[in-house]
Amino acid sequence: MKERLQLLTVVAEEESTRDLIRFAGIVVLGFEADITFLAVSPRSRQEFSVTTEIAKEILSDWGITTPATARLAAVEEWLVRYRMVQCDREDRAISSPFRVDEGGVREKELRGVDGQAFRLRLRQGDLAEEVVMETREHDYGMIFLGVPEHWRKMAHVLQFSGPPTMVVRRWTSQEYRFLVCLDGSPAARRALNLVARIALVMVAPLDLIALPEKGYPETEARAELERAARHLRRAAVPHRTRLEEGNFEERILAMADESTIVVLGTSSRGQMWQLILGAKPYRIARRARGPVLIVK
């Protein structure tokens, strides 16, 4: 039996919870995937404890109320509202008992209406470090992040976690489209393969663009556009191709509005270079008006 795709949604801001669920929910339903909603509680004895007594208490409740547990409670509420999970006669989500693993991570599981697993997990520690640790301990196929008040922590996640990551801004009522940036790199091609599947689920068109620059001549850019177009024609994904000119970062930002999901492969340069000087995908993710999907 083929294993389900595993998705991770990082719930860091209550305001973005509903929008995260909307984006992630589309992929969950379209791919019949399982999804984990992760919140991180600061390292504090008053807020988080893995002692025997607390572990017993959380078998029936989250135990101590913290901002992190409140965010997970909001996730459960929205999952019920959107009719994404199975509920009892009193319209409460049907869930498994809480469990605590050896590392002190709390988790409970809700069952999706189509059999998917919706997991609510609570970790302790620094948000960025715990998210990266979560991605190393579990085989996630994609991550969803809300836009935080302090970008540094999410930049750390983008730098050091492996799975494709979508930075989500507020949901818009406009029809979404994808803007896929091609540069001939393996990461950009992986991004195209992933987003072609998501576009079919969302019934969203694709714009393929290439911007010739130093080390990427126009002949190669045109050839890459044609190769990508052939792939999308075979997959029956509506698309357009565009060869653009100008500064890559500024041109992308000018073309993308709130309903544009920008899709980028990461720089081929090393992590240390990216950490010190920044890289185009990370800068675009921070400045864009709509969602940005980054694939390594």
What's the topology here?
Blueprint (H helix, E strand, L loop, with lengths): L5 E5 L6 H15 L2 E8 L10 H6 L9 H15 L17 E2 L5 E6 L5 E8 L2 H11 L4 E5 L4 H10 L4 E4 L8 E6 L3 H17 L3 E5 L7 H17 L4 E5 L4 H8 L4 E6 L5 H7 L2 H8 L4 E4 L1
Helix pairs in contact: 4-5, 8-10
Please provide a written account of the structure.
This protein is 39% helix and 22% strand. With 296 residues, it is an alpha/beta fold. It has 2 domains: 6-168, HUPs (Rossmann fold), CATH 3.40.50.620; 177-295, 3-Layer(aba) Sandwich (Rossmann fold), CATH 3.40.50.12370. It has a 12-stranded mixed β-sheet, with helices on both faces. Helix 7 links the parallel strand 9 and strand 10 (239-243). Helix 4 runs parallel beside helix 5 (151-160) and helix 8 runs parallel beside helix 10 (280-287). The longest helix is centred in the middle third of the chain and has 17 residues, at 186-202.
Give start-end ranges of low-pLDDT stretches.
46-60, 269-278
Number of helices: 10
Residue share in helix: 25-40%
Estimated structural class: alpha/beta
What do we call the CATH topology of the largest domain? Rossmann fold
Number of strands: 12
Instruction: Please compute the radius of gyration using only Cα atoms.
Output: 20 Å
Largest sheet, spatial ordering of strands: 3-4-5-2-1-6-7-12-11-8-9-10
Which overall shape is indicated by the principal axes computed on the Cα atoms?
Answer: globular
What is the fourth-level CATH superfamily of the largest domain? Answer: HUPs
- Give the CATH class of the largest domain: Alpha Beta
| Cα-to-Cα separation, first versus last residue | 28 Å
Tally of separate domains: 2
Rounded mean pLDDT score: 84
Largest sheet: 12 strands, mixed
Query: Helices and strands, in N-to-C order?
Result: EHEHHEEEHEHEEHEHEHEHHE
Strand content: 15-25%
* CATH architecture identity of the largest domain: 3-Layer(aba) Sandwich
